[in-house]
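User: Predict Histidine ammonia-lyase's structure from this.
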Amino acid sequence: MAQLFVTPGTLTLAQLRDVYQHPTLVTLDEKAYAAIDKSVACVEGIVAEGRTAYGINTGFGLLASTRIAHADLENLQRSLVLSHAAGVGAPLDDALVRLIMVLKINSLARGFSGIRRKVIDALVALVNAEVYPRIPLKGSVGASGDLAPLAHMSLLLLGEGQARHRGQWMNAREALAVAGLAPLTLAAKEGLALLNGTQVSTAYALRGLFEAEDMYAAASVCGAMTVEAMLGSRAPFDARIHAARGQRGQIDAAAVFRHLLGETSEVGQSHANCEKVQDPYSLRCQPQVMGACLTQIRQAADVLAVEANAVSDNPLVFWEQGDVISGGNFHAEPVAMAADNLALALAEIGALSERRISLMMDKHMSQLPAFLVANGGVNSGFMIAQVTAAALASDNKALAHPASVDSLPTSANQEDHVSMAPNAGKRLWEMADNVKGIIAIEWLSAAQGLDFREGVKTTPALERARALLRQSVPFYDKDRYFAPDIEGASELIAQRTLSALVPAGTLPSL
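Assistant:
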């Protein structure tokens, strides 16, 4: 298991990627307990004094003006969790649930939430025991917190609902026993602290970020391979061009291509004296387009890194002043907009890759056999693979529509503007899967094109990429069942085999 030492508010994107990718043993910094305990004492003081504070001794949402009797405070918190567990859809996978739980632990442990250490420790114990609550995919609008999915997460602490342990579903009490726990009774404010927050929206978007980074790396490698397969020029990647413009993403994207393409190669030398003046945009403008995508990925990463460490429940406990203040940190608009920007990047990465595939199909543009196969006519070659890439790229155009501009009022218009951040985040997964399919087809196409340039090699980095593919997918000498080739290349991309070829530090979490 991966090891994660949590000093609240300091998690990095690289750590969060590890949490998403591997079962994790969490250790909470003991220094966090002082602030946690003081925030609880502040809440207990308010209850003892009979002061009215939202969420502590009042109802919720439109019912905020309803005062709750002291004898009903524990039942209030339990009822809140049960009633709000109203999600629908397929259960989230273990990796995503684990990420959500770690984000929640990180936020609650900052000491602004008025929740006891035993509740936070119980979440830690569940993560460490690989016990993951059943959280349905849908049901949050990304404001007032991710109420429904976080309620499903919290049900387990009460001994309700279901959980999965190493692939096996079990009832809540059995699952708690695996982690050495018994059902909890929530104290004042604790149910609200668990349910309020943007952790689900943020986890959805973080998964999209990680996948966008992986697709960016794979597309950079395959784009460089296509430059070589198409006998393209290295001149458009010259550092002076990009320095003259000054766009940091473009400058760094061009550096990645120079790293992959090197100064020259046997392929490059084979057409050193050709008469071609310029390459098509999908080759020549890769630094400009991919650089813009890199900028969007980095900006989204900055927002999500902040949100992953944020306190986003409501109300917040400022124990030093003895204040409990109601606000709106649960509104996930920053996350929604970051996810929308990632959608733009994913759509463009895929669209540009599809255009490069199309170039390789055209024998007049590529100087390769039509549709990258010998004996054309008898063989259709990559003809329909390119059609598949076009279908995937077009699908992403529709999926890229911003979710953050949508809103439907909830809670009888008390919550009259919502972010739709979960929708913004989860559509990124489908988009990334589409891009993976497109890049897989480009990888196959570029390797096929290079194989037709018999007797000459490309650069060491790109030869490694070609060899990685050829270990799983042989040269396409005549028509065969094509889908397994695409699946094989897609699986290699999913395993991040190409990410290692991109310089470290280019992408935020890698």
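Residues 91 and 135 are 5 Å apart (CA to CA).
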